## 1
Amino acid sequence: MRTTKRPGLPATRGRHGNGGTAVTYRVTVEDGFAGVVRIAHLLDTPRCRVTALDVRRIGASNTWIVDYDICGTDHEQQNLSKRVERLPGVSKIELLPTHC
């Protein structure tokens, strides 16, 4: 398992000074690494800051799991999750419980 954090951004959860919160989403991708790349490209947005990204393959299948932590307002987070959900190959997206 590999986690990448952008330099200078906290990987904390909870309330932030910008009025947003940090949450974790889990996305199941069925079309291989190409789907992972599409998600990573979509997450590169100035509206929501991605503070952590974790990508792993499930067994020998072509299914991948992408977990990402983002900071932003509830509205920004919901809009981004809807955009991720519409990507080809995404079979499931879920909000994971946060532990503050």
Note: The CA atoms of residues 29 and 90 lie 5 Å apart.
## 2
Amino acid sequence: MIFRVKIVVNVSFSLGLIMNLYSGLLYLVCFGAVSYISVEGGFFDVSYRNVERLHGLSDHVWFLLWNRFHFCFLTIPVVLCCRGLWKALRQKITILDFHFLVVFSGLTFMEVVGTYLIYVSYFQNLPENEFLKKVLRIKAYTDWATLPMLAWVIAWSRHVRRGRYLRRNIIVFAIAVASFFLTIIHSTMYAFLITVTGLLSNIAIYEFYKIHYFRSRVRVMFWTALLANILFCSTSLLGSLASCGWTLIYVNTISLMIMSSALSIMFVKVLEEVNQHKL
């Protein structure tokens, strides 16, 4: 009898894990499909027509070095997801907690891939018109991924503080995705969107800290995530308003990875502690 109960529990857990993993991937697939069709359809070509070729990338030694850094950045979201899956299988975090980690890591991965493709494009012998068209579309896709990623910080913070609200999460994600179409009106609309979304994400991180400040190592991770997020949003804002150099792009990418890593580890750690007290 006990053996049968264990089988039922394991089957139920496995099905729940598969369903939540599927729902998390569904967010990413829907965003990927909408953004790919819209960007490749040329909807945002007018908004990003002022993209210029940046100079100062002739050093192939630095190119190889940054490639290695970027490869490490690409593996970080994957490693964090595997770490979250391991904790979910051991029931240290719930399946719903893992769902939030999957979506956040997936959006971070998309943005890092976009930045890497822009960087690699500078070392391809493409005609000027073809080069600018390729870069502006990848940049549009990368900028677009930033909005739902920051919006998901708001949803994830609320989940840690109050529990999961499926309908509200869908609305927040949908608004963040749909808002990027405002850039069709004028390119500076993205500066407004990144400012609002970045501000709300920082508030969400602080609201989380007000409740869980007493937990071990949370203060260090909080300040790391908050400052890195402020730096990431600031460099994204500057990059949208004026042509920036590669130094700003490097800082933007590094701050993104620090923020996403610190935030993921902090949220998962707190959720793990909360779930232990429930057992």
Note: The CA atoms of residues 25 and 103 lie 7 Å apart.
## 3
Amino acid sequence: MAAAARRPAPIFLLSGQVDMGALTDEPGGGGWTEIECASRKAYGCGEHGQEAAEGLKLYVRLGAGPLLTSSLDIRMSDEALRRFDSELEISAPSKDMRPRPMQAEGVVQMAEEEDLTVIFLLFCRPFRLDLTYYLVYDHVGASLSMINYLSDLYLPTGTMKPVPKRRGSDFELFLMTSRLQLPRTPPPVLFVCTPEARANPASDDGIGLWQIKTQHEEIQTWPSLSKARVSGPISREASCTATCTPPATPPWTSASSGCRASAWSRWERIT
């Protein structure tokens, strides 16, 4: 009797757009499973950052069929929503301004590369400075880290996707940038966010969280950084079975015009 044909292994895809819903509601549509988070920690995210991070929840839903397109969902507690809102209001030009609804969007940057899933998280409101973070889920320790993004004085070179490097049970994130410096083109600047910098209490206000590295040494010893510098955007493929697929259009089309303009400029850098 001929052996039964073996079914091919399914291909897993992770949608690039993160479902944020109404932020504090339950994920809709059914089939969502909350992802275990043994710890949640905010780094360089301001006075309210830790309380905000503690209220975040990640959910995953696996699609059907031979091409299993999974989706990520982020929800938060009412307290976390108030904390993010408080951080946004710090930059309000006038405390008497009538508050407008806060917009929140997430884009998956990598899926399970170096056992890490990285999401670029954006909160915005007209006439306020955006809140921008890397939300990093470490599959090794089931930990969730919310890392403040670089100052707006620096723009990513080619892509906002950081390059991860595993260090035992922890990780580093590298990001190639250039400083806003017109009219001439500035040289690239390599930043790294290390476990030591995150553990330093001085980084709580964002100072020292991202450190400038000597580019020659890192690029010579790590080909991924050379690829990020020379060829622009790095492939979103995480592995043969875990791939991140970006949405065809920016996911913040329903946001107000001020937030759309800010988010669109960042979207162009993400893709």
Note: The CA atoms of residues 116 and 254 lie 30 Å apart.
## 4
Amino acid sequence: MNSVILHFSAHSATVSIRLLDLTVDNVARIFQLVPDTIYLKDRENGTLVLPYNGIFTNTVGAEYDVEGRPSTEAGPQFRFPPGRLPAAGPAPGPRPPRPSPSPATYTRNVVVATLVDGAWEEASLTVRFSADQATVQGIQDLVRAALDARSVVLADGQGRRLIPSAGTEGLEYWRRGSRKVVAYRGEDFPNKRSGRRSTTEMVRAEVARVQQER
């Protein structure tokens, strides 16, 4: 069976329609009904047939009564000759896929330590990262880009360098605000780690000593 017969008592209309064209949109247009209210009733056993994704797929009978609320925006009422199918558009195609949601992002405050005139100056930097970036390398790259630096070293509050490992990966580690993370420019970190003064610092200290002796 490739088609069914639809009856609509309000219009005294009888229409033969192919199963491929048996969609809510086509039935609504043919009988001028509100699409969301349309369902079919099997004339033989009274079974109700509801649409699935806009298509009547569970039709096993040969004739159905069309039920639904007339559209208030419809034009003049008309009737179709029995057994005649009006022009109907093709069945609707697959719906376009929904856009993928943007990945969740989180924020992390990083202390930026900079060596200025022999003293360490600190500033606060907030970086936004995703779950994939919740690693030492990921945060390091974000800080480096924000500072426009050639290289960056991350350390804990005691000046110990953070090493990529299972313990320093994941959201649980990087979302914990109580854990201090300090970023050093690559050229400054050796001085912090060894406790030695930088070349610039030593030169300035020597100049200050000479001036005091005069």
Note: The chain has five helices and nine strands.
